[in-house]
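Q: Convert this sequence to structure tokens.
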Amino acid sequence: MIRFLLLSILLTMLYRALSRLWMGIVRGMQGQAGPGPRFRPDSARPHGVHMARDPICGTFVVPETAVAASGQNGTRLYFCSTDCRDQYQSHPVSTPAAHGRTA
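A:
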């Protein structure tokens, strides 16, 4: 009895896998994108997070959680730590980003 139950579960799983494979091949040949009704349109996909680059060490930081300071010409700069911010404030021109170099 247990052997029959396990065999029926295995055959059901095999049937579902093969049917999904076949439907994927058919949809691909028809030019349809995605795995069918569960496919989310582009507007429903999660978007990336906007990040800013630390002008001292070059680390990318999320502006909402970064240490912020006002830079030259009233621009907003974001730093990964207070040490980078203090270093920028003491020598704002001698940073790698100011010279066009990246970390």
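The chain has a mean pLDDT of 79.
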